[in-house]
Amino acid sequence: MMKNCEYQQIDPRALSVSPASAPQSPAETTAQRSRRKWEVFPGRNRFFCDGRIILASQSGVLPLTLGLIVVTCGLFFAFDCPFLVEHLTAFIPVIAAVLFVFVVISLLRTSFTDPGILPRATPDEAADIEKQIDTSGSSTYRPPPRTKEILINQQVVKLKYCFTCKMFRPPRTSHCSLCDNCVERFDHHCPWVGNCVGKRNYRFFYSFIISLSFLTSFIFGCVITHITLRSQAGKSLVQAVQESPASVVELVICFFSIWSILGLSGFHTYLVASNLTTNEDIKGSWSSKRGAEESGNPHSYNSIITNCCATLCGPMPPSLIDRRGVLPPDEAISAASASEIELPLFTAKNDAHMCTQSTKDVLERMVHSSDFHGLCPPGTPKTTPLGLDDSGTPAPSAEPSPSAGCSQQRGRQSVAAPCLALSRSSKRDSMHSINPAFRLASPSPSLSRTSFILGEAPDISFIPLP
Amino acid sequence: MATEFHNLQELRHSASLANKVFVQRDYSEGTTCKFQTKFPSELESRIERTLFEDTVKTLNNYYAEAEKIGGQSYLEGCLACATAYLIFLCMETRYEKVLKKIAKYIQEQNEKVYAPRGLLITDPIERGMRVIEISIYEDRGSSGSSSGSSSVSGSTAR
Fold first, then answer.
1. Where is the Palmitoyltransferase DHHC domain (chain A) (predicted)?
2. Number of neighbours of residue A445 by Cβ within 10 angstroms
3. Nearest CA to CA, how far is A50 from chain B (Å)?
4. Closest-CA residue in chain B for A208?
5. Min CA distance, A125 vs chain B (Å)?
6. What pLDDT, on a 0 to 100 scale, did the predictor assign at position A269?
7. Which of residues 70-129 of B touch A (CB under 8 A)?
């Protein structure tokens, strides 16, 4: 009778063996499907074509930018070029086509290139930095100093500690809260391009805005010529416009674009000539407001031509994040488990130390969040019409609104509003990105740290006491 | 205590990682890639100071060559701009060529100088060009005494 049962009898020996073999199966599956480093990348970026193309987490208004450029040029080629070729010269569409191709390629290169993202510190590195900071003895409960002073070309520069990336940021590096990455020579995060602009793609961005200036000016001029020529042939202006309504659309788009784009081009030409970034210019890092001895940009070569050549024609540095590298199997497993809890790559090497570290972050976050609401934004930046959002804005307010980026406004919004909207204290490290649930779960050794003011105001820095 | 290893494979298989030393960047000349030549105290018993300094100085020279702003880099930049930066898709930049040279140099240094002393240098490009990571290995056979001493020194350093 028992043999007529439909189910198989479970072998007790198989049960005892299976727990031992269970840990091996994730390793086997992970080893069989070797993962690339971009799949466990901790920042908020999106990758396409198996890691070949990198984009920010929100593409912003990149489709709009592309759409406007393509539509305007399409209308130009379709409606204005035939008339102009007939009445003027055939070079007009040729020049426009060359400019259009250059603009689109520069735009795509800017959007899809790694701007100079710095990979986060490995746990060993982070532990080593922490050790060096605390070598003065941990008997006093002092918070770790978050700035380090170094000399660059005989000028004192403060390096800040990035809590997300667990390292002291190199000079001119800033943490972008939208992408949650430290970016070298951070200029700004541009929503029109859908990416940060940093060391590796600044030259593409600059060629994009310069070529776009030429393109919009050229189209604007050609359309005006077209309508003028039409209305001169014995017709009124209204009649000429009625014959070619597309020209009006192009005129409107170009008219609004030219102001902002030409302004932006001029601004960036100034930045290139003085070897500054938008970030530094807006923060006034090298202005003489703090006193005579701190003025002057230590990175400038003090010659306009050398600055231009160094910024635009300098060597092309490699991408540091190695998107397409294959992860070694043991890292893949730890990274997989870590990414599920939404952590940066922590291994279980030094649990007690990590708990302490994460507790510090929790406490600092508590103080930060209470500080933030009491902050009033500093005044409008010196140079309009730019505003930027580089570091430390908490997640809810880091919306990709057009106000949070370079104001290549093609229309309605006023230029001054973006500057005010995001002139928050841009000196905060972004700690919002990491899931706070894990942090709060770790034990807290001592709550006496909360008595220290950990919030960082623009002009206060922590210098370690001797 | 000098632990002898004959090649890198032997090092990795028979030794256990005791400690890691990080040589930080030197920003005194700006943002160009340059590492500090200060000799870390943890390596004092493992390798001669001159050998270490030679390695770091050679690496610094390689990076300076890669980042040199001169005739060739201008030519590369202008050519790239003229071709709408499409040339980067086909051609290897000078920086990448120098990085390959650096990788070969580090491999050679590891095999000849560092592995016989139980040390291993990690290429800075794998650490985001922020640090030169030097791993200190202890022989598993003598791990009882030597790893004990290294852990004691580690705790006092805290």
1. 158-283
2. 13
3. 16
4. B84
5. 7
6. 94
7. 73-74, 76-78, 80-81, 84-86, 88, 93-96, 99, 125-129
* Residue A260: pLDDT over 80: yes
Name the range with the highest mean pLDDT among A239-253, A261-275, A299-313. A261-275
Amino acid at A439: R
* Residue of A349 and B73 predicted with greater confidence: B73
| Residue B137 φ then ψ, to 5° | -105, 145
Q: With an 8 Å Cβ cutoff, are B81 and A298 in contact?
A: no
Dihedral sign (CA A59, A63, A68, A73) = positive
User: A378-383 long-range contacts, Cβ below 8 Å, gap at least 24?
Assistant: A378/A423, A378/A425, A378/A458, A379/A423, A380/A416, A380/A419, A380/A420, A380/A423, A381/A281, A381/A282, A381/A419, A381/A423, A382/A281, A382/A282, A382/A284, A382/A287, A383/A267, A383/A281, A383/A282
Q: State the first-to-last Cα distance of chain B, in angstroms, to the nearest integer.
A: 23
Estimate to the nearest angstrom the gap between the alpha carbon of B145 and the chain centroid: 28
Nearest chain B Cα to A201, which residue? B85
Does position B124 have pLDDT exceeding 80, yes or no?
yes
Read off the tokens for A330. 């043991």
Widest CA span in chain B: 63
Nearest by CB to A122, which of B84, B94, B127? B127
One-letter amino acid at A313 equals C
Q: What is the DSSP letter of A349?
A: T
Q: Number of residue pairs across A and B with CB atoms under 8 Å?
A: 110
Picking from A125, A167, A215 by the largest number of B CB atoms within 10 A of its own CB, the best residue to mutate is A125
Residue from A132, A313, A327, A357 whose CB has the most chain B CBs within 10 Å, to mutate: A313
pLDDT of residue A9: 54
User: CA–CA distance from A303 to each of A203, B42, B76 (Å)?
Assistant: 19, 44, 21
In the numeric block, the tokens 């970030």 are attached to A279
Q: Which residue of A has its CA nearest to B19?
A: A124
In b/e form, how buried is each residue of B68-103, taking b as 16+ CB within 10 angstroms? ebeeebbebbeebbeebbeeeeeeebbbeebbeebe
Nearest CA in chain B to A207: B81
Residue A128: CB atoms within 10 Å: 19
The answer, yes or no, to whether residue A439 has pLDDT greater than 80, is: no
Domain limits, chain B: 17-30+49-139
Task: Please report residues of B whose CB lies closer than 8 A to that of A314.
Answer: 67, 69, 73, 77
Q: How far apart are CA A176 and CA A196, in angstroms?
A: 8
Give strand pairing partners of A189.
A196
> Parallel, antiparallel, or unpaired: how do β-strands A195-197 and B15-24 relate?
unpaired
Taking each helix axis from N to C terminus, what angle separates A62-75 and A91-112, rounded to the nearest 10 degrees?
A: 170
- The catalytic residues of A are 190
The pLDDT value given to residue A452 = 41
pLDDT score of A37: 76
**Model pLDDT, residue B10:** 61
Asked whether the predicted pLDDT for residue B143 surpasses 60, the reply is no
